[in-house]
Amino acid sequence: MEKAILIGIKLPASKLEAVEEHLLELGALADTAGAKVAASVIQKLQKLNSATLIGEGKVLEIAELLKANDAHLVVFDEDLSGSQVRNLEELLPDVKVLDRTALILDIFARHAKTAESRLMVEIAQMQYMYPRLTNAWTHLSRQATGGTPGIGMRGPGEKQLEVDRRLVKKRILELKSKLKKIEQGRNIQAKNREGIFHIGIVGYTNAGKSTLVNRLTNAGVLAENKLFATLDSTTRRLFLSEGVSVLVSDTVGFIRKLPHHLMETFKSTLSVASTANCILEVVDSTSCDYEEQIAVTAKTLEQLVSPFVPHLLVFNKIDRISEEQLSAIGERYPNALKISSQNGTGIAELKQKLLALQGEWKVTH
Q1: How far is CA 336 from CA 34, 38, 332, 340, in A?
Q2: What single DSSP character describes residue 252?
Q3: What percent of the chain lies above the pLDDT cut of 90?
Q4: DSSP 198-221
Q5: Which of these, 160, 175, 159, 76, lies nearest to 125 by C-alpha position?
Q6: What are the pLDDT digits (tens) for 220-266?
Q7: Is 254 left (phi over 0), alpha (psi -120 to 50) or beta?
Q8: Cα–Cα distance, 261 to 96 (Å, whole number)
Q9: How deeply is 24 buried, as exposed, middle or buried, from its count of CB atoms within 10 A (0-12, 13-18, 19+)?
Q10: What is the DSSP letter of 47?
Q11: Measuring CA to CA, which residue among 206, 181, 227, 194 is closest to residue 361?
């Protein structure tokens, strides 16, 4: 197992508590990717360093920390440019440098099981790589004098960069074309489901969505205590009462600081939410920053779901919090349901609420 050092950045506009929470989440991402967190560092900065993000002096301190922990992986909680990665790797020989997005992409690649999710992951990887290609060849100009390419350095590098760019662009177009065909098939499936009440389960990653689907439908969907255990949407039939069945779809979890292009790529997986007749948002009640997680989910749903679609807020894992915490949730979110997908608490009430919504929907359809 690789040992990792995590790096968080505290800028004047950010709160230390938020940076600490984000770093904890980065640690969970690292764990999901198969790395062991050896140490975490928060660097306070007035502004980001363009060359190394954190400044050369801090990089040398990190080098000592790596050596002391026998670690060979550094993960930043911010996006790094290609030149920043290269500069950091030059200052930290034999050390792999990743940013948050690269780590998430690695997890996505591990968890992609279907042809659709594998296509989406490769598109996201290519889009991540493309803007970094330019910086990948700037080592040629370093061997130059006065800004002019050095002897033997004219042409090939620049030509290779253009070739690489064209190849990546071409590959992205090919992959998007394949993905579009799969999306068309998904749209046909959605039309075939038009006469059945459809529930889209959404929420922050690791909130317990797959466990809830299993509890409701006995579906046997993979449910792990890992971030992004589910990448592919799964749709199952749920019997709410005798003669009344609905469809329930699980979706990929949301997460903060997810780059726009990554969100765009995975929109087809989330499209099941956009065609749902009811949104069931699952919240991890054990998280100390569930309010921010709710905000991240709301921002993502704005692009996908009509505000007129019924929205159920469900706090999960209540078997793992105190009565005081449960009471605070009730005061802050009086209309939210409180459940435990693990032991079944509140599931009967949830089913009754869904049955009522299905009844209201049936009157107009």
Answers
A1: 35, 39, 9, 13
A2: P
A3: 56
A4: EEEEEEBTTSSHHHHHHHHH----
A5: 175
A6: 655 566 666 556 677 889 999 988 999 998 887 888 887 766 777 66
A7: beta
A8: 24
A9: middle
A10: S
A11: 194
Contact 6, 77 (CB under 8 A): yes
DSSP assignment of 138-151: THHHHT-BTTBPPT
pLDDT tens profile 279-306: 999 999 999 889 999 998 998 888 788 8
Beta strands in the chain (DSSP E): 2-10, 35-44, 73-76, 96-99, 198-203, 234-241, 244-250, 278-284, 311-316, 337-338
- What's the CA gap between 147 and 330, in Å, rounded? 64
**Residue of 258, 249, 257 lying closest to 230 (CA atoms):** 249
What is d(CA 153, CA 99) in angstroms, rounded to the nearest whole number?
30
Q: Tokens standing for 275?
A: 């065609």
| Rg, Å, the chain Cα set | 23
